[in-house]
Amino acid sequence: MSDIVLETRNLKRSFGAFLATNDVSLKVERGARHALIGPNGAGKTTLINLLTGVLPPSEGQVFLEGEDITSLASFRRVNRGLTRTFQINQLFNDFTPLETVALAIAEREGIGHNLWTSIAGYGSIVEEAAALLARFGLASVMGERSVILPYGKQRLLEIALAFASRPRVLLLDEPAAGVPEDERHEVLAIVSDLPSDVTVLLIEHDMDLVFSFANRISVLVAGALFTEGTVAEISADPRVKAVYLGENA
Amino acid sequence: MVATSSSTAAASRAAKLMKRRSRVRFYEIIVWIAAIAAFFVLPSKMLILTEIAILALFAVSLDLVLGFAGIVSLGHTAFFGLGAYIAGLVALHYVAEPVVGLLVAGIGAGLLGFVTSFLILRGSDLTRLMTTLGIGLMMAEMANQMAWLTGGADGLSGFSLGPILGLFEFDLFGKTGYVYCLVVLFVGTMLMRRLAFSPFGLSLKAIKANPMRAGMIAIPARKRIVTVYTIAAVFAGMAGALLAQTTSFVSPDVLAFHRSADVLLVLTIGGTGYLYGGIFGAVLFTLVKDWLSIVTPQYWMFYIGLILVVLVLVGRDRLARWVEYLPERLSKSKEEGR
Predict the structure, then answer these.
(1) pLDDT higher than threshold 80 for residue B140
(2) Is A93 on the interface with B (CB under 8 A)?
(3) In chain B, what residues touch A76 (CB-CB under 8 Å)?
């Protein structure tokens, strides 16, 4: 079990004098359900941004399947099977959920550069988009503009959109935030249903969700890796509790 | 079983929605019928109709860049002007047949578009405005200085055009000219319309709406921008060629800054992001300009400015799609009625 899919080596990112990511060397195994936890401001989202190419690192490298992807643009990383969801929804406001998901599927299939055929002409793409939307409970609103959807639905679309790219490594940045209570477990159930060779790195504040979902946990504090271990190890670690209690106090 | 039937229902609804996206709207038919009717009803107005058709093609091409990819430009006339000069030079030195000149002008302008597209890949709206403005100014000065080729400040004249495809002579009243421009506008708009509803067109709007997310669904934004900028330049160049061919003259004014500003104004009037805004805007802009220049020959620019300010303040973002309102409401109420 040393099949590392995603790895960072001495990753650093500073914003001015502030070190948001401090020498992080993280390894994620293939098929892992890996959770990244830590108090607010620990640099979890920055780390995801570095992994996905939204931000360039100040120092260090990112490897996907053993290949150095540090200097690759986001879209190239997605092509290689690495994608993510955003903590704050990043949607195309005027697009309908159907258009949004269909476009992502079209890009995955490499036909995004086709400037002659209407998307309606690609029956299989429209069908797949409809099926994906139905799975996420978005079938009834597939023709509405995304921006007018209720927040919970937008959240589901945010996650469905990442699924449309059929990632092999999926980074979820607080996927359940803002999802209504009753739909929360549904979302995580869909994520859990992913084939076992799909690797998931999850950022989440809800510890119940983390402990029920993850099989490995890394704790990030002040931009640096604080500790890492199995769910049992982390949940029993008094230092981790202190970090969280310290935050709550 | 339930899940299967519900997902089949979703699929058929999705197929219907997707088809409806690209269906021909009512206003599109009206536009083309009106354009053809104008030929018969307004025989004495061929020159202004031709002017409208040329401006419309120019504006529709800018909409590809501005309304779809979200790239602001103050130098779109660089392509228009280059197309005009190329068409003039082709007619003067090589072939009098206009369609050849039109195509060569499109290719030439497209090449310039391709090369300059790399300069607008980076930076903010302001950087892009300044870069495109700079390219436009450089082109204007080059045309002015290369008098041996372009006629300099006097413009390029002394060429006349043969019959279109060897069949249709240009006439004194400009009837052939109008039909020619209208056909080019129609074909150009139809081609761009296909592009608009293709995955490519949708990906441009995604880049405009949210570049970060666009990257995260694997859209290669820079490549797409290079492509669309080049295509837009081709059509802008063709619009310039039409002007040169229908007037048998290329004035250095084809590269003037005010043309870039005018065409932005046209799109602001007509609305961006659905192509026909360029056509509606060209009609309104030209008619208002024509009317004002008769009513107040000295102060018409003042009123154009006033209209612009009022339009932007009143319209705001609604402006971008005012024509969409009616048909969308119609189609929605139809579905709900069922």
Answers:
(1) yes
(2) yes
(3) 220
Would residue B38 count as lying in a domain? yes
- B10 with A112: Cβ contact below 8 A: no
Question: Would B72 be classed as within a structural domain?
Answer: yes
What tens digit of pLDDT does each residue of A138-190 get?
999 999 999 999 988 999 999 999 999 999 999 999 988 877 777 777 777 78
B172-203 pLDDT tens trace: 889 999 999 999 999 999 999 999 999 999 99
Whether residue B6 and residue A134 make contact (CB cut-off 8 A), yes or no, is yes
More confident residue, B87 or B319: B87
Task: For residue B168, tell me if it sits in a domain.
Answer: yes
Q: Which fold has domain A1-81+167-249?
A: Rossmann fold (3.40.50)
Of B10, B22, B212, nearest to A134 by CB-CB distance is B10
Q: Are A214 and A202 in contact (CB under 8 A)?
A: yes
Domain that includes residue B219, residue range: 25-256
Mean pLDDT of chain B: 90
- Look at B198 and A123 and tell me if their CB atoms are within 8 Å: no
Which of A164, A144, A1, A106 lies closest to B219, judged by CA? A106
Chain-chain contact of B21 with A54 (C-beta, under 8 angstroms): no
The pLDDT of A26-53, averaged and rounded, is 93
- The CA-atom distances, in angstroms, between B244 and each of A147, B92, B158, B253 are 45, 11, 12, 11
Neighbours of B288 (CB within 10 A): 15
Instruction: Check if A148 contacts B (Cβ < 8 Å).
Output: no
Say whether residue A63 is in contact with chain B using an 8 A CB cutoff.
no
pLDDT, position A1: 47
Distance CA B174, CA B168 (A): 12
Minimal Cβ distance to A108: which of B218, B221, B227? B218
